[in-house]
Amino acid sequence: MLVTDQRASLHAGLSAMLRAPDAEFDASVARIFSESCRVHLSAPFYPLDGTEALIAGFLRPLRTAFEGIHRRDEIFIAGDNRRDTGGHWAASVAHYVGNFRAPFAGIRPSGRLAFLRAGEFYRIEGGRVTEARLILDLPDLMRQAGRMPFPQELGTEMLFPSPATHDGVLPQTGSGAESLDVVERMLSDLHAYDPQTFESAAQTGASGAWADDMLWYGPSGIGANYRWSGFVKDHRAPFLTAFPDRKGGNHYCRIGDGNYAAVSGWPSMTMTHLGDYLGVPATHRALTLRVMDFYRIAGGRIAENWVLLDYLDLFAQMGIDLVARSNAME
């Protein structure tokens, strides 16, 4: 685990940075990010090198688009990376909150309150961020503006809730190593599945990785669902029908902190588009998918799972521009 004050310092610094006056904004960014940092963002953004590029290419447009912008973290954890890439990382599920008053990432504004959800991973060296990866749920921002880019909804479209225990920000109890152990056990068994039932070994039941009353919170287009049966109906079955050869788990980062764990791959999945998915007929194209997963563990099982997927990038690989599709709606 990162030293507690370092973890708390980053959390406080990211929040203060967004609220800094214009004259102090650049300096507030430089206190958190190293001058040579590299920041990877979900589509349609490109990687940004250095604080100047980060400010001009992402942070200032974000502040301009959302009046009164501030961040609300639902989860903020940190720990040592178990993957070979190593390092000390922090990870968060956050909402950027403000009045959506100007275009952002090409999306037409609503003029109303918006909660832009984000998954974030930060590598920390010498007290500052040297590398970051962020997935913004831009399709959900389109949905909030009344221009949902998907022709169907699988689960319940909703705001990402805080953990049921309300202790996800800088957790103070629990074993991060044990929490990550549960997640890694689940992931190792998830790869193989029955193509008729979409079941995998060791996922449910008394010895399964998932709690009987598990809650799964997915990005826009998939939505949220309840219990394993809801997860299979609203996400797993449609996804595996469309991408039956999917292979996941190619993660650059896996950390645990208290009763929480987080993993991410950039990309995590490789797959072939062999069936209809969210209104897009099979293209038979080879695709990749960037993924972030955040978990709460209770009693040795996964109680809640928050998931961020870079669907703008995925659908672009299918030949679909979700921003253009949304903007064309009245």
From TrEMBL:
It comes from the Bacteria. Coiled coil: none annotated. Pfam families: SnoaL. GO terms for biological process: polyketide metabolic process. This is SnoaL-like polyketide cyclase. It comes from Roseivivax jejudonensis.
